Amino acid sequence: MTPSTTVHSPLRLYGRSGELAIVDTLLARLHQGDGGALVLTALPGVGRTALLDEAVAAHRDRRTGPVLYATAAPAEQRLPYSGLHALLCSAPGPLPSPPDRVLRDGISPTALLALLRQLGADRPLLVCVDDAHAWDPDSRDALVFAARRLGAGSRVAVLIGAGDETSFAGLPALRLGPLGDDAAAALLDRITDAAGAADRVDPVVRGELLREAAGNPRLLAGLAARLTPGQLAGRTPPPYPLPGAEEVLDAHAARLDGLPPDTRTLLLLAAAAQEHEPEGAGADVTLLLRAAASAGLGPAVLDQALLTPAGTAGALQRAGDRLHFSHPLLRRAVLHRASPQHRRAVHGLLATLLTTVPPGARGGVRRPQRRTTGAGSVANASSVSYIPPLARPGDAPAPGAGARAAVPSMLPALVQWACAAAGPDDRLADALEAAAVAPRPHAERAAALARAAVLSTDEATRAARFTDAAEQTRLAGDAGRARALLARAGTHPAHHGAHLVRGLLALRDGPAADAHEALLTAAALLAPHDPPRALDAQLGAAEAAWAMGDALAYLDAMTRIPVAVTDPALAQYRDGMSAVLCGRIAEGQALLRRCLDSAGRAHDPATLMRGGVSALVLGDIDAACRFGTRALAVVRSAGPEALLPQALEHLAYAELRAGRHGPARAHAREGLHAARRTGQPNTASHLHAVLALAASVEGGPEACATHADAALAGAGPHGLAQAATLATWALARADLAAGRSGAAAARLDPLVRPGPRRGHFATRMLAVPCYVEASVLAGRADRGRGGDPVADAVAEFAVWVTRTTDPQAPAQLARCRALLAAPADVAGRYEEALAHHDRAGGDFERARTQLLYGAWLRRRRRTREARGPLRDALVAFERCGARAWTDRASGELRAAGEAVEGPAAAGGTDPLSALTPQQQRIARCVAEGATNREVALRLSVSTRTVDHHLRNVFAALGVRSRTELARLLDR
Questions:
Q1: Residue 469 near residue 670 (C-beta atoms within 8 A)
Q2: Left (φ > 0), alpha (ψ -120 to 50) or beta: where does 695 sit?
Q3: Is the predicted pLDDT of residue 622 greater than 70, yes or no?
Q4: Residue 161: in which H helix or E strand, if any?
Q5: Global pTM value
Q6: Cβ-Cβ contacts under 8 Å for 214 (sequence gap 6 or more)
Q7: Alpha carbons 873 and 844: distance in angstroms, whole number
Q8: Which pLDDT score, from 0 to 100, does residue 905 have?
Q9: How far apart are the C-alpha atoms of 605 and 611, rounded to whole Å?
Q10: Best exposed site among 137, 663, 666, 733 by fewest CB in 10 Å?
Q11: How far are the Cα atoms of 340, 361, 414, 420, 456 from residue 388, in angstroms, in the given order?
Q12: What pLDDT does residue 565 have?
């Protein structure tokens, strides 16, 4: 639609910048005198007409030429040349011959081409045809013939809108896909803003609208328009399924109306056969063949439909033993177009085929009366009473008796029985609930429980089943759908599981403090009658407290876990973590080591991840990596999908602690994708922090800043202290690598010192070595004098080192003491640190110690001795892929008098090649914007030395200012 027409309309073009650019290029060429053609193809409702209207408006705004515009009328499809007649009738002025003559005599393709060229002879002509696939064949063929021959100098452009490009071979085609998430959200904001409700749309309702629309703009507008302000705001529950899709579904179904009846019946069978399958899995071809045979469809129909896409007008596509609709809306449209009676008959037929009668059972199923004379046979089944074989006919089972007979393998048949039900059916609902258990996937269990809720007559039971469906949906990794199911459960007081599900959802996508309180409430409500779920709530509350960085709240949540818990690993974890946080370090470590032994025999991912946390607290990094690897393997093989981001996060963090930055980055990236897919932005923040830390070693400063900013953007509003601490540490380490020691110290100072901005209790100690190094290099340390915050941090770090088995900790402590030591003791401290590194391994931390040691030796004018550790540091940083640290080591090594190949050696002439190594380092610092004092602090020299070298740099390079120097180095 044009800007002028959208002032009073909620509809605009969103997410079509690329398509608009292509159309604009066609129009620009037209206005320069060169014609062309373009076919815009899209499914109904995606925005093809809106894009054509935009092109027309753009052409008219330039006032350069006329427009011919026509929309196909399906009722005239069999009237020859009716399409061209409508097109020519839209001409703004008289034509060489009346348009009515086209209806009477027709027009040849060459005559149409000549007519279009004549109309565009004086001014550029734009021809637009919408829904051209519904034109009569004569008009379509003539237009395609003419469009293929419009090129340079023709001054005629043809834009064709169609459902597909099959009838327009040889013409450039542009396929319009569904809107992206951001564009669809922006369109929904526009729609609700026009209705005066943009600021009052409930997030759950908003998510359901976007989910149901699936990127279809017309469908999104139709769904939103049918909801009342109260439903949009979430004050009253919206209807289910959401109304407003009828127009778009009818348009999709209209594409199939011309197919033979038997083919349409096969499509209905294929659509119904997917109801018991996971979303996107398609239909089982074997089941479909059996159903088609039972419905009386002949082999010819099956061969034509299943072997060639043209047999179903492209609606069905076969992939091995699965059959898929070409678009999900097509499947919905097929079900929507069929009558309720016909749909129930088809579902009943499928249920009968899926049902397995146990040996010795008396009856249990009444098979439908079948005909073998065509598609109408399926309708005959509608009069049959379909009874699942849950109890023997004539029995009067007690409540739940049918449920006891149901087994998980019956779930597909039960889902089909539920689809065939004409109304509520408690017996069938009980059977669905009983069968919705392991080993069925969580998504299948969720769908079955939701259907059981719909079939339930008791309000409390219905609420409980919707809540259970929400929990299974959450475990399947669909947080948005889980919230929608919770909304359908309402606020019935008899079922407290809703508090648990809400709290667990908030734990991954909400303020951690809110999740903590919600889960504590859920634990208290569930404890009297559902201890296992109360335990889940308590563990979730503890996890929320950990994410918040609230040690007291974490300790409180852990101590609330019942003493009589039957899981030994969990009991040891509870007691061990509580003891450590209460200061009973030896007792806590002994319990956590026992937890490692118990968890090592476990096979569920939650226990394995708790084992990994225990190993990290103990400092056993290798064990943490082993537990993380096992937990990830279990989640990959058996689920649940909702735990995949956490499993990847735990493993990536353990690998990061172990110095395996490459694997950590790979696992964190995968986890980030999984977190986005499953709706877990809090986990995404933690993974961004891990990626920022990895980038501070192996990536560039831009990558580190990007991930750190993303982590902090999520951590701030949701109170994620751990993610914020790690992201800040990453930024400081990147500053340190680049020589910005003052900035690094300023970032870390609040994290390691007491105060309201103190870092996370479990991770702040890890940043102390960086803090000490940055503070000393920036001149902010008092070399161990009383009241020095750096010395206080080292003293606290020394205590922490005695309590951990982290292999790097002793070496880092010796390095910190070397940085603060008196000159006579520095070398001994560095040698002590390197000896610890030899025992612990880890290239990166050892290289950092060697770099500091070599730099200290160089400043003491012991340049010959400095070259050895600096050379080793350079090689180690190169082996780690730590680019920024490599540059820093290279600069130190050059300053020590050893020739090192610079970054420009391979690619051209380095403008600094004529300078001494010290002058090169000063020139680069100044070009980055550092003052003389900042350069002096960074290089550990006096400001007079910097000033002296800078004058010589200006003279050697022929520049007169810092600005000119920066420009020279930017070239």
A1: no
A2: alpha
A3: yes
A4: strand 156-162
A5: 0.80
A6: 178, 328, 329
A7: 9
A8: 42
A9: 10
A10: 137
A11: 20, 12, 7, 11, 17
A12: 67
